[in-house]
What does this fold into?
Amino acid sequence: METDSLTGRFAADGYLPLPDFLTADGLRVLRQEAGRLEREEAARRDFTMESMAHSPRHMTTVGGHRIAQESGVIANLYRDPALLALLSTVFDRRVVPVEQPVERHVLNILHRPGDTHGAHTDDYPLALVLFIDAPPRPADGGLLEFAPGTADLEALGGSGTRSLHHHPGHAYLLRSDLTAHRVTPLNRHGVRRTVLNFAYTVPDRQTQVTDSASRLYE
It folds into this structure.
């Protein structure tokens, strides 16, 4: 697909699917890195996020500060010049890494029935989400659910809400500061949703606006 088509689609929807974003080798390497980080660095989170309408968080996470110290592979991929150039083309603005170390690249793991990343918006404009593991069927849960064109968390579940299933090796780009979104709960034992979330911004916007990332990843 031509990049101008990607730019128009992202501007219209605030969401852009990137199927087969990772090569087989790339997925294998990131799965090894994610597994090691989960064993050595991950923390369990079970609480409600007051700043996001008291939505639930039941998940296991690794913050960006730990990833930066422990995984050069992920840190280098996050700053890859070709990736930044692609994102800048799609967003039609210069895209730069987030300076805040905790939020810039994080590992989110849902692996128990009921695990969910509840309703929220992000501090920064763009979220590039890379799938390492994903439930095999939409009925298993772990779906991205978002309300196009609104940051109102109450809009989730209403008319126009979209629910999307993804596969390992796939990715998507989301206009995550202006789009209310969440991950639906896992519905059964034995399924996992493991993603790397890369947050990006523009040069004049480097300030956090909520405490949500600090609570979830520090």
About this structure: The domain at 3-203 is CATH 2.60.120.620 (Jelly Rolls).
